[in-house]
Amino acid sequence: MKFSRIVFTLSLCVAPLIHAAETDVFDEPEPATTGIVLDGRLTALPDLPYGPLIHLDEGKIMGIDGNDTIVSSDSGTTWERTPIFGADQNMAIRAERALFRTRSGTIILLFINDAVKHYSWDKEKNLPNADMLLPSYAIRSLDNGKTWVDLTELHGGWCGCLQDIIQTKNGNLVVPGQELRYDKGRHATMPYVSTDDGKTWLRTQYLDIPGQGDHAGAIEGTVEQLKDGRLWMLIRSYHGYFYESYSSDDGLTWSDIKPSAITSTGSPGKLQRLASGRLALLWNAIPNEGYVRREELFISLSEDEGKTWSPARVIARNKGGRLSYIHAFEATPGELWITTMQGDLRARLYEKDFLGPWTPIVAFGDSTTATRNKVNIYANVLERELPEHGVDANVFNAGVPGNNTEQARKRFQADVLDRNPEIVIIQFGINDSAIDVWANPPATQPRLAKARYRENLEYFIAELKARDITPILMTPNPMRWAERTLELYGKPPYLPDDVDGFNVVLQDYVATAREVAAETGVKLVDVYAAFQAYDTKEGQSMDDLMLDGMHPNSAGHRLVAKALMDTIGAGTGAAE
Question: Residue by residue, what is the 3-state secondary structure of 474-541?
Fold first, then answer.
């Protein structure tokens, strides 16, 4: 596949997932000053203004630039501008804004007034001062942007961002607003709802998570309506994933906010329904090796209302810079114009170029498999890099923290078999082998007997083989003592004075996993041995691979992923 290096020196001219034969490899970018590197399926549109953009009648397109509307009658080649406010109005529209045309033809603009911005944060108390100000507004046009009416203040305090709006099936307009909670010292998401085409607005309820700081909290949400009628909101956090909330009454009330299964780097995402019916998500996922937060922009598509997603594919990179605050405009069905505020990305992609087929893979395990904050887990690495090994894969992460094989057996049908995978990676053992000497009274036996651990592994393998699904068995990784594990487990039969003393029980379960692989003839990725081998090399320590003595860090997950890619790429027949 060919990739292109594009240099963006953009100033607005209107005024102030991969096919099996392809790989997902980018040219090595030049220093950040030279610009953005695009995936070869994208085309640069350097004269495109930053979004959001909307369709008008007669094929026209509208956007916002400064305090003006801009309208194009020639698919974005030229633009005409019209002021929104009178000369006596003290308004300055920030770039973080939302623009929408309702089914009745009313145009809604939501914006933050930068003209009165006053940032005032007490750093010693880590709290905002009472005079901190950045208010948010809604205004609407009934004549395609020629004139604007019904200017309404949404929030008179500080609003960091407004970037999304939808109209539900019953006609409600729903906006994932944001408000600073002065007493808490953090931001929270506040959904606003209009039932009269944007003339008046209702504040609903805070969607809040703990934290304190001028960028802390649940912020910068994006929302879409699912086919079952529920609204689904994804909300930015710094915890390594989006939070999510649902509404079953067109935005009037919302479920308790909780972590979603979608990892992210503390950046806003864009969730959007396409003309095809698919959901598209554009966001800054956990970056690949060699990149940091917001340097990579990803896209993924869902055919089943967000239950599963196509492989996350990097569509643009900006080494040393950023690619975030995304808008996606579907210019024609399946044709997306992508713009970002940070990085000034202006490009076009086609939905069809990011459709399958893919090899479905399930990563079935415990917390060493599951998503973990900002760690680049092996499932993510596999999905992004397996194409280089000849396998274009879609990897579903079925890791559940705390699970042993007995608990995993109860969810095996739903989490594994029902997903119709071609390959299943199985890794358990740490929780099976654990003896909870910290309990009252202290345990004296493993949580799950070794014989039952063997039976469960054999069961998983037999069920997969019966369906012509390829199993790959992995041994658990070894553990190292850390302050917390020493406090809990530093008693017999464990050996707290031995560097390998946390593995005295686990090593028997590792041996069992090896035996099961040999007896059933499945491929084995011996993670335990790979970590030990790493530890024996001069200048290296197993600690380099560990997050907390028990769970692999990004380097540890990469070591696991490398062994898996070698195994999967070489074919998945019987073990040699």
Answer: ECCCCCCCCHHHHHHHCCCCCCCCCCCHHHCCHHHHHHHHHHHHHHHCCEEECHHHHHHHHHHCCCCC
